[in-house]
Amino acid sequence: MVKKFSRLREQMSSEAREKSQAKAQEMLAELPLHEVRQARGMTQKVLADVLQVKQPAVAKLEKRTDMYISTLRSHIQAMGGELDIIARFPDGSNVKIDNFSELEKDVQYNDKSRRAKTSTAS
């Protein structure tokens, strides 16, 4: 016998409903990269245009399980987001790692230098 979810939810205690809602929010906060892009309403083509790459490069990136932090950061920024690296420890403390902000500046500088060299070489 098939039961409607709304009917089952009505039978749940308020505590169980709160736990269920919290779990649903937690699951929505943990998405693979391609689902983040889709949730932001962007196609691979649009993201590729923003990143100044071809669409297959975005598809390939979204399938990777290992990538440079700078690559992930630029992908997130192209979607209008901001990437934070946070270490969580068993004692419950969280530490935001900020070393990568300097890395980002270095990458941007190197990209500009490379583009300048390429355009003067043409």
UniProtKB/TrEMBL annotation:
Residues 33-63 form the HTH cro/C1-type domain. It holds the Pfam family HTH_37. It comes from the Bacteria. SUPFAM superfamilies: lambda repressor-like DNA-binding domains. GO terms for molecular function: DNA binding. Residues 1-23 are annotated as: Disordered. Residues 7-21 have a biased composition (Basic and acidic residues). This is Transcriptional regulator, XRE family. It comes from Desulfonatronospira thiodismutans ASO3-1.
